[in-house]
């Protein structure tokens, strides 16, 4: 139990991932599925950034020509998460564009209604 309290950020990330996963699974609305996917993305970013943070060290930004390599955190996890955020935004915009196309074609964004329309057309 004490490990859960010490690692509360990681526990929060896992809880957020679970919430996003349940939203993704339990809703037929495409917009709600996209929101669930974004919550899952955010939980992954939170987890990796919290793991990469070290107390007592600073971001690797050199100010005034002072350079102490032991005083900085590793910038690779943060850089990877920035790349992940860009990819997540791109995927979200693509999914929203596909949702608009589905709405234009079927008149709804509910997956069960779209499947029923597809069955009736076949």
Reconstruct the topology from this structure.
Layout: H1 2-6, H2 8-26, H3 30-52, H4 76-106, H5 111-121
Helix pairs in contact: 2-3, 3-4
Plain-language structure description:
This protein has five helices and no strands. The model has no long low-confidence stretch (mean pLDDT 90). The protein has helices at residues 2-6, 8-26, 30-52, 76-106, 111-121. It has 122 residues and is mainly alpha-helical. The protein is elongated.
Question: What can be said about this structure in brief?
Answer:
It is found in: Cell membrane. The protein is 73% helix and 0% strand.
Helix percentage range: over 70%
Radius of gyration: 21 Å
| CA-CA gap between termini | 56 Å
- Spans with pLDDT under 50 lasting ≥5 residues? none
Strand content: under 5%
Integer average pLDDT: 90
Shape: elongated
Class by helix and strand content?
mainly alpha
- Number of DSSP E strands: 0
Alpha plus pi helix count: 5
Largest sheet: none
Elements, N to C (H/E): HHHHH
Main location: membrane
Pfam family, one: Oxidored_q2
Membrane topology: Multi-pass membrane protein
Family: Belongs to the CPA3 antiporters (TC 2.A.63) subunit C family.
């Amino acid at each position: 139990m004490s490990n859960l309290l010490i690692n509360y950020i990681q526990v929060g990330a896992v809880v957020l991932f679970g919430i996003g996963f349940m939203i993704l699974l339990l809703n037929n609305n495409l917009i709600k599925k996209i929101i669930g996917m974004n919550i899952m993305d955010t939980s992954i970013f939170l987890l990796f950034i919290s793991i990469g943070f070290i107390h007592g060290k600073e971001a690797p930004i050199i100010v005034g020509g002072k350079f102490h390599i032991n005083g900085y955190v590793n910038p690779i996890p943060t850089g990877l998460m920035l790349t992940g955020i860009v990819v997540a935004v791109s995927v979200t915009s693509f999914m929203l564009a596909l949702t608009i196309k589905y709405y234009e074609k079927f008149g709804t964004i509910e997956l069960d209604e779209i499947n029923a329309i597809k069955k009736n057309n076949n």
